[in-house]
Model the fold of this input.
Amino acid sequence: MTLTRSSRSPAARPGLARALTYTLVTALALAVVVPVGWVLLASLKQRGEFFGSPWTLPKGLHFSNYADAFVSAHLGQYFLTSVLVTALGLVFVLAVSVPAAYVIARYEFRGRRAVEIALLGGLFVNVNYIVVPIFLMLVDWDRSLLDVFPGGFFIDNPAVLSLVYAATSIPFTIYLLTAYFRSIPVEYEEAAAVDGASRFRIMVTIMLPMARPAVTTVILFNFLAYWNDFIISLTLLPGEGKTLQVGLLNLFTAQKAAADYGRLYAGMVIVIVPVLIVYAVIQRRLIEGMASGGVKG
Done:
């Protein structure tokens, strides 16, 4: 009898582990889906429907809440600003990080180890802690250019905000891309060099396509960081050209006093939907990049 129990025990353990895994994954999925679904339903309700049970379904599809949020609350303008800032930030960070990561991964030069250590140190710097020094530095630069730009140039400039985003995310981006470039066999580059390809052409036509999973990963992580940022955009864009996150806070303050929660939740959906779309588009390559990093790294 003892032998029978011991022989069945190993077979039962995988089933129990699988059941616990499914239970945990289901709980995590519900923890994400239920709030998002609730916000989506709340964004379609009229003002009077919020005074009853919050879990009741909307009596009608009041898409006018989205029109009011876009036009009356200026979320459309803030949305375009966030798209511009995020797109420019991604262009800036990739334009700098891809060549830098390739050089660090493949070239031997004096001081390379020091550069790598400095980039690793940058991973531990929380950008929210250095917002004030960045702001004061940009204010000083505006003062020095007061004769040329009386209205200021560095503060309240979406392009400058994009540069700040890119600069603060360069250490993480270079670190991830460098590790992936090093995992690619050097024979591909040697074969291309024999055919007469330059280093730049090798990087663009061979290494970059092979590193597409890693590039997709850094695009997603940086997109989330730029799109969801609040502290930096609030500090560096104090004027009317706010990003969507800051505009949503203003909408929350205004609609909380007016008790117009339908417009408020519509604004939340406007913030959430682009993130879901981007993730749905590139999730497969993101998983490939994470899996490749785990195997090759």
About this structure: The radius of gyration is 25 Å. The mean pLDDT is 84. Residues 63-296 form a domain with the MetI-like fold fold (CATH 1.10.3720.10). The chain has one domain: 63-296.
